[in-house]
Write a structure and sequence with these properties.
By secondary structure, the chain is mainly α. The chain contains 9 helices and 4 strands. The strands form 2 sheets. A two-stranded antiparallel sheet has the order 1-2. Strands 3-4 form a two-stranded antiparallel sheet. The two termini are 16 Å apart.
């Protein structure tokens, strides 16, 4: 069975974000193909996509390598997210479907319940799901794609601490959904901008000027069996 390149791309990206491949390390087609149990063709396509996304660079005499972003590039990502997530919420208020609202409301309900219990592990995954769904609600594939890339790259470059007050954080999520449901784009934009700004203090850069990561995750976070990867 031929494994699609986007599945290989997802696997490599996830491992880069998790720290399986260190910044600056080489990514050879042969070794990647062997690791993920695929031919070199989807690996080659995946590396081109990851280069376009900024996770991979091609160097003379070395080939594909994991990118080594600077602190300024990392800071720029947070600034871009601060501009684009409020825009996305505003667009979602105009373009969301009832299906989107149903998922968003369900996530807020679960998030608020988990926040009261102090279950931080569930809250992190629920928060990611919330922001992914909100981005999909914009009705703009281009904006959805850009926001997804930003989330991946920020997760790669920053360690994010749990909110000091998770109940308040999920109250803000609920207020965003209420504004989106009412079609109030300006309020959705304003609440999302405030929510995003408040989250900045929780971000800790994973590497310093010397290029050392503050966290090193050596093992893959998903099985190598490619058919089981999410699409």
């Amino acid at each position: 069975m031929r494994i699609p390149a986007h599945s290989v791309c997802t696997a490599i990206r996830d491992d880069i974000v998790a720290g399986v491949y260190e910044r600056g390390s080489r990514l050879t087609e042969e070794l990647l193909a062997r690791r993920y149990g695929v031919s070199r063709v989807p690996v080659r396509e995946a590396l081109r996509t990851l280069e376009a996304e900024g996770f991979v660079v091609t160097r003379r005499h070395a080939g594909a390598c994991v990118a080594e972003p600077t602190e300024q590039e990392a800071a720029d990502l947070l600034e871009m997210r601060g501009l684009l997530e409020p825009l996305g919420a505003s667009r979602a208020a105009q373009r969301r479907t009832e299906a989107h609202l149903k998922v968003l409301r369900g996530l807020v309900r679960l998030g608020q319940e988990r926040a009261k219990r102090g279950n931080s592990d569930d809250l992190r995954s629920l928060g990611n799901w919330f922001h992914e769904t909100l981005a999909q609600s914009t009705g703009s594939p281009a904006l959805t794609s850009i926001l997804a890339q930003l989330r991946h790259k920020i997760a790669w470059m920053y360690a994010v601490e749990a909110p000091a007050d998770p109940v308040e954080s999920w109250t803000e999520h609920g207020a965003i959904v209420d504004a989106v449901a009412r079609g109030d784009g300006e309020r959705a934009r304003a609440i999302t901008a405030l929510h995003t700004e408040r989250s900045l203090a929780a971000h800790r850069l994973r590497f310093g000027t010397g290029g050392e990561r503050t966290e090193r995750v050596r093992n893959s976070q998903h099985p190598v069996n490619m058919p089981s990867l999410r699409h």
